[in-house]
């Protein structure tokens, strides 16, 4: 199209301006994420969405409550299921069974295929059977789809907890489009660095940041006033047609919208956009991060704490987190794993990447690992709760598979936290009835982009409709 | 030339008479406007005065002239124009790619993405331009050296005057100078005393001003644009950027007030490399070069270089048309192509040592549409696609009209034993009804059946597979194959009229409608006989370019 006229893409961020024109010498990275897309100017409150997929399946019999119905903190605490770890969040939770991936079985590599389908609701792109680990998704993932609708040209926040350079198969969750992976951040410290200029440890903005932001607001106001005057004068030209005047009026209105955004920026701190609650010590310790087989849960929790901050500060509206490698080598320190098997082998019930067995101790270890992972999720959700995001976002958790050794694509467990602006039911365990995950993703996408007024029913592959059962 | 004009008139007149879905054209709502006021060719009345007997008897279905131009007096810069203009105003060494994340115009509703219909400033665009202006100001004032390039001095008044003139593409009024000096002072008030702080805020304000963001034509209808307006129009069209200081000086001196003066500047610009880039954008949009990047051939071993080579070969082909003094005739008949490692194999030529080189492709390939990029881009994998090829020629090269396809397109069935691809397609499209396939698209596409989906020449093609006819504005013409078809198009009127229409649409940034027929009547013979450069010059000289259109209420 116009490639020859635009050249190579290079983004110049707004930090540069603040150094050059404002005379502020400190780096203010977070100002780059100040809302350019007027998320706070919308009639509807913006909704943020995080999609998580863990790996290795769960022990289904020990995971969800035995019966569907209302969720209460007391009942969950009394349960012997893995999700009892989420009891404190019961009021904001929705458990979902009866969700299937769009393909009945995997191709040559079900581990990769499953992740490719988790957020795209499409079977992966076909490739040669001998290289199944190279399979890619056939469409954009839900996080990328939301980002494309709300801030085109800017990727969702795609995070990874695992060994992204494991040499076989790694990120397969977030895709910009067919076959195109979204760049991921695997080290929470990297994301922390992007956000660090936001707020002081006590929860207030830094003095330098406050001053720079205030100057930016005031200088923009001056420019807006001038542009408004010029537009008004131009619209007074009698030779302009009605259409010309409508166009200029549209421009005029655009300034008003931008100013609403500006006023919203001042509410940032009130919306939980503070550095409070971050485990700065642990984050700083990750400067020289190397993924290992023992720190997956720690990385997940740190990622979750930073996504909560990013959402509270309107640093993008969608995010995803792949919780483990497709063939995960995390060695969980649980009572039944004294043999130090990695997760993939525990999931297979055999010490093998390619075959499955029926090792009972591995099954017990898997159930214990489910508990550990639900504990990590609960801790991560605490960060979202602390920033008051229960009504302003959703966090969707799922797994690569429904279970361990069989790697089933049917009845894959889903957990949703948050009401997405009152759009989603909460405090319930529902059976979706064996539907393809496109319906769930349609619903979550629609919730996330509600401020655009768009209802999405044709995402992925499957019946083009919403999952009405989960809509409040 | 007279014959060409006559056939063009006939074609235009015949448009509303068509009854079939293909070729049926309704008179556009805005066609009553007369954008070429002052033209000596007549406008709507000229169409009405065309010989009606010829119109009904020609069989020519004419070029599509639907649309609803706004004739905007304020036209927002495109993202690309914004990018280049900012770089030139602020004396960047090269565009800084600040617009990479700007909202893109809606595509598909207009011929080109620079059409007035798709350029506006809404909330999203305002935020884009604001962020872009702030980033540009940061770059321009980020160092003493950078700021010195923007303005060689440290006085606020001089800064406002010189940078303001470049940004507004005209001198600032005294009131505007005072206002922007006030902005300079405001910058110092907010950020502290210092030239850089005042200058930065002035740059931010200038780049968000409607006088920068919109190219305007504010003079009386039917009268020539003033020197500054026509300087901007010319520079943004031919160079894709804001007028240079020298061009503004020429405007100030009245050198652009005469047609010859304007032509002289246009000819200078056409020797500038930036004009080649603009024409790349034009041809790229016209012929959908964006397809090349994602083109995939299922079942064919991937060639990592092929996609880029297809695009590059296409760009170089059209570069050569412009720079070599060629025109539409050569686009349709040139036997020269550009060949790299991948395309050499397609053409059966010795591969070059590196890069793409100009090669004679031989008489079997005449013009761009018989070269591999077009043939590969419009195919079903390794198989040819007569429907796609014919459709693109009918719409993009001959400006034919076509109705909407059925809601559910039937799939092409597998070949039956002994059946040619043409017979297979005819069997499928016979049931489509109307003239779309049988009269317009398919005959054009079948002409290329000598080439498979990879652009390779087939050695088993029969004459019956490629022969056909098409109802040109000059009358229905028979052709034996694509080579003859290309020659007919080069010798005829319709492809030239269509190209003139497309070029005018891109240059004037609006739909070209029936009321523009005097413009097309003037340009078509130039296209038939002269080069692309001469065609551009003719357009610059035309009243449609130089004069302010009457506009709509």
Dominant shape of chain A: globular
- SSE arrangement of chain A, N to C: HHEEHEHHEEEHHHHHEHHEEEH
Number of helices of chain A: 13
**Assembly type of the shown chains?**
heterodimer
Q: Enumerate the strands of the largest sheet of chain A in spatial order, edge to edge or round the barrel.
A: 2-10-3-9-8-1-7-4
End-to-end Cα distance of chain A: 44 Å
| Rg estimate of chain A, integer Å | 24 Å
Task: Please tally the β strands of chain B and state the result.
Answer: 8
Question: Percent of residues of chain A in beta strands?
Answer: 5-15%
The geometry of chain B reads as elongated
* Mean of residue pLDDT values of chain A: 83
Number of strands of chain A: 10
Hey, which two chains have the biggest interface?
A: A-B, 58 and 77 residues
Poorly predicted parts of chain B: 4-21, 23-60
Describe this structure in words.
The complex is a heterodimer of chains A (about 475) and B (about 550). Chain A is α/β, with parallel strands linked by helices and about 475 residues long. Chain A has helices spanning about 5, 15-20, 75-80, 110-120, 140-150, 190-195, 205-235, 240-265, 280-285, 295-310, 345-350, 360-385, 435-450; strands spanning about 50-55, 70, 95-100, 155-160, 175, 180, 320-325, 395-400, 415, 430-435. Chain A contains 13 helices and ten strands. In chain A, helix 6 packs parallel to helix 10 (about 295-310) and helix 7 (about 205-235) packs antiparallel against helix 8 (about 240-265). The model of chain A is unreliable at about 1-45 and about 200-205 (pLDDT under 50). Chain B is mostly helical and about 550 residues long. Helix content of chain B is about 50%, strand content about 5%. Chain B is built from 28 helices and eight strands. Chain B has helices at about 1-15, 45-50, 50-55, 80-90, 125-140, 145-150, 155-170, 175-190, 195-210, 210-215, 225-240, 245-250, 260-270, 275-285, 290-295, 305-325, 330-335, 340-345, 370-375, 385-395, 420-430, 435-445, 465, 480-490, 495-510, 515-530, 530-540, 545; strands spanning about 75, 215, 335-340, 355-360, 380, 385, 470, 475-480. In chain B, the strands form four sheets. In chain B, strands 1-2 form a two-stranded antiparallel sheet. In chain B, strands 3-4 form a two-stranded antiparallel sheet. In chain B, strands 5-6 form a two-stranded antiparallel ribbon. Chain B starts with a helix and ends in a 7-residue tail after the last helix. Mean pLDDT of chain B is about 85; it is low at about 5-20 and about 25-60. At the A-B interface, helix 1, helix 2, helix 7 and helix 8 of A face helix 4, helix 5, helix 8, helix 9 and helix 10 of B.
